[in-house]
Amino acid sequence: MIIFAIGDVVSDKGCEFLRKKLPSFKKVKGIDFVIANGENSAVGNGILPHSADYLFDSGVDFITTGNHVFRRREIYDYLDTKKGIIRPANFHRESPGRGWEIVDLGKTRICVINLSGRVYMDDCDNPFETMDRILDEVDCKIKIVDFHAEATAEKGAMGSYLDGKVSAVFGTHTHVATADAKILPCGTGFITDIGMTGPKNSILGIKADTSVRWLRTGMPARFETADGPCSMWGCIFDIDEQTGTCVSIESVCVE
Question: Distance between CA atoms of 204 and 226, rounded to whole angstroms?
């Protein structure tokens, strides 16, 4: 089972680039299942039903999110009713949506789990204890975790904690791909962050001069998506369907 995880898709520019590149990339690489982090896919910030539908229509099979998922109220009912999209499982139990879901592909089943970090992030439940509860409930060989977190140490700790318990753990949120894709000792594929899908010449997808001005002066600024060429970063995990272990991992950039 070849699974492609796509880094945070930024605004309409990232969505459009994904639609342009993903279908042919899936064919070339023999991708069976695509997961994309879509929490910043709406123009401005957050995610909207329109941007989520756009990703699904472009070849994405499953959407994970993160700390910006509730920025737009229009997404609340969508999270409650739509299959194939989740928010972090360690958010408050009364939050819209759900934190994990099992997808039945006929020949196999995949459980996708979303978690949020706590270091330098908004307050939420302990992600390690949340994972313990989920693993007690889930009876599924292939388990994929999107850990949406800021601190690399927290992401690394989660990978180590889940080694041998899940098929893969990939980090999102920081928008910068890390060079540490590897298979951990007990067979779990891990990468600290899979990167971003959006404008290359930007600060995390935002116009550079706006970000610089805000950081220099501390004055409020309206963040706008940068223009210019884009790239799609992600990671390919080849998972053994019988054991659920990761047999190969590859960080990729599509330009």
Answer: 9
68 is catalytic: yes
Q: What is the pTM of this model?
A: 0.95
Q: Which two tokens stand for residue 1?
A: 């089972």
CB 145 within 8 A of CB 113: yes
Write the single-letter amino acid at 208: A
Nearest to residue 195, comparing CAs of 229, 161, 236?
A: 236
Provide mean pLDDT across the span 78-97. 97
| The pair of three-digit structure tokens given for residue 102, joined into one six-digit string | 């099992």
Distance CA(252)–CA(255), nearest Å, equals 10
Select which of 68, 148, 173, 175 is catalytic.
68
Q: How far apart are CA 102 and CA 9, in angstroms?
A: 23
Which residues are registered as beta bridge partners of 168?
Answer: 144, 189
pLDDT value of residue 199: 96
pLDDT of residue 214: 86
Distance CA 180, CA 163 (A): 15
Alpha carbon distance 209, 215 (integer Å): 10
